[in-house]
Predict the 3D structure of the following.
Amino acid sequence: MITTIYRNLLIGGLLIVVGVLLILVRDWMPQKIILISSSLISAGILFVAISALQLKGTSEKPVVIDERILKIRTHTFMKAYLFSFTIVCILGLLDFSGFLVITSRSVIMIIVFTMGLSASLLSWHYNRQGDICEG
């Protein structure tokens, strides 16, 4: 885990350096380079910040993952995937029938938010409920 954190810190640092270098050489390149360099710098800062938070959190006691937690996680993400897949199918049918015309950006955002929201709500529900009854 620690090596992954250090690798992400290295990736973040490299992204920041490449972004700054692109800003410095923008006179020889087109104007779109500013957008690319700012995106690289933002991604690098995000990598560094998340890795720093993970590194800070590793000094605490290790989390014990038992069979119950693994079963809840598996069940939760399976159900969240099925819910998101159902939403994609409904959006596809609505688009195919002509009732709804949306851009691909909107579809991706709907899928991402649906998956995250359903996973977090189902995880909360199953953790509160207790054991998962398969059947």
